[in-house]
Automatic annotation (TrEMBL):
It comes from the Bacteria. This is Trehalase family glycosidase. Keywords: Glycosidase, Hydrolase. InterPro entries: 6-hairpin_glycosidase_sf (IPR008928), 6hp_glycosidase-like_sf (IPR012341), Glycoside_hydrolase_63 (IPR004888), MGH1-like_GH (IPR054491). Pfam families: MGH1-like_GH. Coiled coil: none annotated. One of its GO terms (molecular function) is hydrolase activity, acting on glycosyl bonds. Belongs to the glycosyl hydrolase 63 family. Residues 30-412 form the Mannosylglycerate hydrolase MGH1-like glycoside hydrolase domain.
Length: 421
């Protein structure tokens, strides 16, 4: 299939998943608006349709809480309980800080929003629309970053902690196995059917149990600090946050604001990443409750590469690991979501092995900011080969490139549009 035909197919997926105000991640399985999915959709649309890229971010931020938290799901009322856990589980409307008239989850996802907004602004065909968008969204993104700094620095070292695997966007990554295993065994009555690959053991029960504990605290920051049993500093979440701080610094003058505080925050995050998460030549997630670094290396380990200010020797070490047989060196199709040599690696199970278009895009962006043009080229070409051969699937077998999970997946289509540019 030539580039033009692939681009047309990508557009038709995005059209089919567009509700008139938001793009859902995939038909059927994910009928609402998801947080980081919409940021990838905005990135993919940035060069082609400024208004729709903006609309995607605006509709997502309509779900922002008064605390600054941007929820991981913004529910569409017509499909309220079509996904579990739905609005009746999260009960956002009972909380005084939730937005009026919009049902959301009570968790967040990686803060890619400012980088996505910068991408839209930087690539906009319609410059006036993009400038107005920046002025409108800038204060909301400042509030988001302030929320992370004030409420999620559970380790006290300058990083944001995730309080649930869903917050990573990489739900069943082996990085969360040990912190989840340390939770008291739980059995929860509800189960979502039809995903035999996704939740092989009691992980889903623990996901629901964790979400209910947080909800029952009244989404209380003090509960998170003192009692919540899952708190992890993830290098991908924090690498994305750092890149978004740098993006906010670039956007600040457009909004008539001072870029200084964003630059300073980015530097603090970089120092904390190096100090708290670096070991054995790579970044590792820190389990705050277990008080240790998680040994397994995943695609999340490369998140801090998004920072152009990462010291050169650290960049070189990370790229060595990325290109080694632990990741790209032994995979036919980059980048496996877990290191291939790990016991937990599974080529067919979501974030435990398969390659994903969104993380490939992030690593391609990282390669570009460090001037690693050959690596960026390989990541772009191989990602396009995946979607050309297997379609816009949710993820892909890293050895033979066959598709896994949902079909017609929005971020796979949207980021293809960006890669074709
Ligand atoms: C829970 C929507 C989301 C993505 C995540 C992906 C998956 C949800 C699930 O789907 O997570 O949020 O039901 O497992 O892991 O990255 O945002 O596409």
């Amino acid at each position: 299939m030539d580039d033009a035909a692939l681009g047309r197919e990508a557009w038709s997926v995005l059209e089919a998943n567009w509700t008139g105000s938001v793009t859902v991640p995939a038909p059927g399985l994910y009928p609402h608006q998801w947080n980081w999915d919409s940021t990838f959709v905005a990135i993919g649309l940035a060069r082609w349709d400024t208004r729709r890229a903006g609309a995607e971010l605006v509709s997502l931020l309509a779900g922002q809480w008064r605390t600054g938290m941007v929820p991981h799901i913004v529910f569409r009322p017509a499909h309220a309980e079509a996904y579990f856990p739905g609005p009746s589980v999260w009960r956002s409307q009972d909380h005084p800080d939730s937005p009026n008239g919009v049902c959301t989850s009570g968790l967040t996802q990686p803060p890619l929003h400012a980088l996505a907004l910068w991408w839209v602004w930087r690539h906009a065909a319609d410059h006036d629309t993009a400038t107005a968008l920046v002025r409108r969204l800038y204060p909301m993104l400042v509030a988001q970053h302030d929320y992370l700094a004030a409420t999620r620095d559970l380790g006290g070292g300058g990083l944001a902690a995730i309080v649930h695997p869903w917050e990573s966007g990489m739900d069943d990554s082996p990085a969360w196995d040990a912190p989840l295993a340390a939770l008291a065994p739980v059995r929860y009555a509800y189960r979502r059917d039809g995903l035999p690959e996704r939740h092989p053991d009691s992980h889903h029960d623990r996901y629901v149990w964790l979400a209910l504990r947080y909800r029952d605290s009244g989404y209380d920051p003090a509960y998170l600090r003192q009692e919540h049993p899952f708190a992890v500093e993830d290098p991908m979440f924090n690498g994305i946050w750092l890149a978004s701080c740098q993006a906010l610094a670039e956007l600040a003058p457009v909004a008539g604001a001072d870029p200084g505080p964003h630059r300073e925050r980015a530097e603090r995050i970089r120092a904390a990443l190096l100090d708290r998460l670096w070991t054995d030549g790579a970044f590792h997630a820190r389990d705050l409750r277990g008080g240790r670094l998680v040994p397994v290396c995943t695609v999340g380990s490369f998140g801090p590469l998004l920072d152009p200010g990462l010291p050169a020797e650290r960049v070189a070490e990370l790229v060595r690991v990325l290109e080694s047989p632990r990741f790209m060196g032994a995979a036919g199709y980059p980048v496996p979501s877990c290191e291939i040599r790990a016991q937990e690696f599974d080529r067919s199970r979501y974030w435990r092995g398969p390659s994903w278009v969104n993380t490939n895009w992030l690593l391609r962006r990282a390669a570009t900011v460090h001037g690693l043009t050959a690596l960026a080229q390989v990541l772009g070409t191989c990602t396009l080969r995946l979607v050309r051969q297997a379609g816009f699937r949710e993820c892909f077998d890293p050895f033979d490139g066959s598709g896994r999970g949902s079909r017609d997946f929005s971020w796979s289509a949207a980021l293809t549009l960006d890669l074709l540019a």
